[in-house]
Amino acid sequence: MDNLPRVSANGNTGPVDAALVPRYAGAATFARLPRLDQVGRTDVAVVGVPFDSGVSYRPGARFGGNHVREASRLLRPYNPALDASPFGNLQVADAGDMAVNPFSIHEAIETVQQNALDLTGGGTRLLTLGGDHTIALPLLRAAAERAGTPVALLHFDAHLDTWDTYFGAEYTHGTPFRRAVEEGILDTDALSHVGTRGPLYGKKDLEEDRRFGFGIVTSSDVLRQGVDEVVAKLRERIGDRPLYISVDIDVLDPAHAPGTGTPEAGGLTSRELLEILRGLRGLNLVGADVVEVAPAYDHADITAVAASHVAYDLITLMGLSA
Predict the structure, then answer these.
(1) pLDDT digit string (tens) for 4-42?
(2) What is the pLDDT at residue 40?
(3) Who is most buried in 105, 135, 239, 265, counting CB within 10 A?
């Protein structure tokens, strides 16, 4: 251990005590939590995947993980929205970054899958910071293998990410969930997109997505139906199945998340996203990711602040899972 004063509870080593060490000082682990090598065990590992070779527009998400870590310095130990102390309920540690090949998507996918399996031995769950959305596929492979069954998926995104190929490439940030359905690692009775919007290539995109089993809650649906109704529908669809949540930060409107690679107007507010997540309390959350934060476009850290709070609530939910 680094001998810094920490806020700890229930035998879990927590974040550096901000009352004694200024938040802007010291190493920028997620929420100033201990590194994985500083604790003997962990219930949740926060891991970065600095990879963006699958993007189709603006690059830069390879730098997203550390950008979110810096923004997470302001997170505190108690989450009043969920009346929970995530770092006291769970041992959470920062596992650093996976070392993935930026020149080979196939090798990178294999590396992420194996690293995810290595980190989740003994029941540890992952909260992954991307990186682009390509990494969701290997993370889902690992989650389904650990669960021993196809997993439910709740996918927050402006885009469907169920396209077939880009320039003949099967593995990109726009194809992970089509590949996951084809591989049989998703429970096709419990798949939902939330926050989708914007132009498509054609009506066929929606028809194919429906054929894969996805339900769609658009950003307009969230506006017109409200958070509570949306949450009720999602909970009914998911039930008690093992659930993986994937959050592309571009689900948020560019006013709330300018720092991303493929922004679309008309998105969710950060408040709406957080409230929907909080409504999922008690579901069987087995893993999650927050991806597509591109710091080069992030004015005043707006995107990273939102992403850090999303990650914080996801970790909290893991401590309140069924």
Answers:
(1) 999 999 999 999 999 999 999 999 999 999 999 999 899
(2) 83
(3) 135
